[in-house]
Amino acid sequence: MSAKLSPLTIGDLEIKIPIIQGGMGVQVSTASLAAAVANYGGAGTIASVGLGYGTEENETDFLKASREGLRRQVRAAKQLTKGVVGLNILVAVSNFEDLARTAAEEDADFIIAGAGLPLNLPAFTEGHSAKLIPIVSSAKAAHIMIKVWKKRYGRLPDAIVVEGPFAGGHLGFKLEFLRSNKDNTLAGLVSDVLRVTGDYEKDFNVKIPVIAAGGIFDGKDMAKFLKMGVSGVQMATRFVATFECSVADEFKQLYLRAGEDDVVVIDSPVGMPGRVVKTSFVDRMMKGGKVPIKCDYRCLKTCDPRTAPYCIAKALFNAVSGDLDNAVVFAGSNVSKVKEIVSVKDLMDSIVSQALEELDKNPD
Q: In whole angstroms, what is the distance from residue 342 CA to residue 239 CA?
């Protein structure tokens, strides 16, 4: 093979293998998984949402429990790797600012923020080295992020993740679009965002790496987007079926059993659509079922415990605990292709070798 993978360079941060393991909550992508990816040369991501969930302190002091849970995970990851590890933080959580400040204080290598536009993220990380990476689902959103950050803070995003409609978890698209759309539009979104970033790169003589995400499954997919001009890819679903992912085996086995028809898009209590694998709980909720909520802390800005049909945080926590009868299990559209549980090293070896083979076969 003559082809080589160029590192993903974000400012002065170099990710040798241009793969970012996507953040998955609640407590799906934790220190063990993130560190394993970082040790291989990729970028590991700890999902910040719900890291205090399941502790007694979470019920009495939600902010402190979340903050300390984040600190523990970042510090644990640093004990396991010298590689690149960052945080994924949802704009939709009520303690977004607190989590962002804590991540910066803990010297996270990067902060990826989505589920809303993180227009004020730079204000919470000033004076720290964390690279700031917004997630967008359109060229318009990319333009807004760049324009607002430049005007308010005199800076640009360090990179941009473009997430398409076939990702798992909460999505930045309308429910009707997701349920009717059959075409892979990520390529079109990437092209549009590359044009936006290209214009700003010329104007300000900088580099804004674009990272493709959502439905990327293997090395062939990776090579396709690298050839389009992205600097790297983000993959999440593939990393659940690894030994290093800390979720219960029942969660992983659900992935292995899932067929194409088992993947559905739900209307989450968060107020956003979400892509999930069917469980008996999901079936009940889609038929109008409800589970009474007792909540004193309101972890999500858009969730009203008085009217929400169920607590999404608890349903996600039930998933990682293996209680699938009461769980919501997020997954990308390609989860039915996952057939075995492997090590992170073997998975990334496979993705990288396939990408190199594809790039070598079809050079630019």
A: 9
